[in-house]
Amino acid sequence: MKVITILGATGSIGVNTLEIIRDNPADFEVYALTAHRNIELLYQQCLKFSPRYAVVADESLANKLSNDLKALDCQTIVLYGKEGLISVASADKVDMVMAAIVGIAGLAPTFAAVNKGKTILLANKEALVTAGEIFMRAAKQSNAMILPVDSEHNAIFQCLPDQDKHYDQLAISRIILTASGGPFREKSLGELKDITPDEACAHPNWQMGRKISVDSSTMMNKALEVIEAYWLFQVPVEKIEVLIHPQSIVHSMVEYHDGSFIAQMGSPDMKTPIGYAMYYPQRHKINVPKLDFTAKPLSFNALDGQRFALIPLVYDMLKRQDYAATIVLNAVNEVLVEAFLAEKIQYLEIIEYIERVLQELKLNKPETIDDVIAIDLKARRHVSVLLNTDKD
Ligand code: NAD
Ligand code: MG
User: Fold this and answer.
1) Which candidate in 205, 245, 269, 349 could, as Cys together with 178 as Cys, close a disulfide (CB 3.0–4.6 Å)?
2) Which helix (H) or strand (E) holds 192?
3) pLDDT tens digits, residue range 5-55?
């Protein structure tokens, strides 16, 4: 039986993880469940899974949840804030941590789990995007195993040689990241002016949280995933290729020098990569819709780098090893997506402001996690000032 903490239990990945545990109660003990503000769902989850700990954003939410649970004789202890997250991610008793908080908020608890040598089921790509070098070095030192949950990286992991699951230049010629192209793949930039948050969140293939759904529509998600693959598999950026594949059936591929391509395929359902990581190195039955190869043809297209300008931008950052820029990119995008979802800026302004801040803000490479957080804050402030000035 594996003891697991789920960071971000109330999100799309968290809920899918708990469904797998519900279907396999003998295989997992839930140590802790965390949420930010959705204490109604966290309350239901605590009653169902009886974790030893629950963690929420602040003290008043913690008091409310704790009183509600006590009223029903539930013994779960409720903690709060960053310290609460770090303590349940790094506790001695925990074997594995599902890192499924969205955004850089997931970095500190995930990093704490890495330092303790836990098995990390990594959905929170932002941790690698912002702190890849520091994160991977720490994992090596502590012997923490990083199992990618992001479907493309999970696919690549499955297609890489078994020995070390890393890029090997003697055997591998390319890593091919597939991208659905999101809901606006067929639209020109001119047609995107009046896109609403609900339109941007309506992904054709995947059911996901709102932030990553907007990122998929701008292809920021794929830009972040190029950085994620770069760190995770220690692969030179010129060996990573993005290929448009609108059906999201081939989740990614590895090309070997002998002409073989190994691809991982499946229905677009996050339970497959989540279950793979939860049971690694075994394979276990996971309840997902069966893939029907006769239902629709599979197609592939080259990426249009002019239309999706964020991708060439990220290749350039990685070639220059400008790792401060990757933090700025992530931070500014988080602020802008939140502003767009709150209908404070227009859809196309997300990309416009990202390009503007990247021009204006040049910072030094981070050496520590504190440096990463400082760069992140600086970038957030910078874009917030621009927004306040422009929108006054
Ligand atoms: P979501 O918005 O559905 O859920 C996010 C979770 O994080 C919630 O439990 C929320 O309470 C918690 N949270 C949000 N802000 C927080 C904060 N400041 N502090 C602490 N907790 C906070 O997101 P999601 O779609 O489940 O995505 C989670 C992560 O997984 C993201 O990094 C995303 O990029 C990655 N991911 C998701 C999918 C998917 O299919 N949903 C696929 C690949 C990767
Ligand atoms: Mg993905």
Assistant:
1) 245
2) none
3) 999 999 999 999 999 999 999 999 999 999 999 999 999 999 999 999 999
> Is 225 annotated for ligand binding?
yes
Strand 240-244 relative to strand 172-179, pairing: parallel
- Number of other CB atoms surrounding residue 319 within 10 Å: 11
Neighbouring C-alpha atoms within 13 Å toward the C-beta of 165: 15
| pTM of the full structure | 0.97
**Angle between helix 347-360 and 323-341 (nearest 10):** 150
Cross-strand bridge partners of residue 122: 99, 148
Cα(171) to ligand 2 centroid in Å equals 25
Q: What is the strand order of the sheet 301-302 is part of?
A: 261-265, 250-256, 172-179, 240-244, 301-302
Contacts of 11 (CB under 8 A, 6+ apart): 100, 101, 102, 209
Cα 118 → chain centroid: 18
- Report pLDDT digits (tens) over 83-126: 999 999 999 999 999 999 999 999 999 999 999 999 999 999 99
**CB–CB of 93/115 below 8 Å?**
no
Q: If you take atom 2 of ligand 1, which residue's CA is the nearest one?
A: 209
As a whole number of angstroms, the distance between CA 142 and CA 240 comes to 28
Confidence of residue 57 (pLDDT cuts 50, 70, 90): very high
CA atoms within 13 A on the CB side of 338: 12
The Cα–Cα gap between 33 and 15 comes to 11
The reply to whether ligand 1 has any atom less than 6 angstroms from the CB of 212 is yes
Say what the pLDDT of residue 188 is. Answer: 87
SS3 14: helix
Query: Which pair of tokens denotes residue 354?
Result: 């990202």
Q: How far apart are CA 252 and CA 262, in angstroms?
A: 9
- Asked if residue 8 has its Cβ within 6 Å of ligand 1, the reply is yes
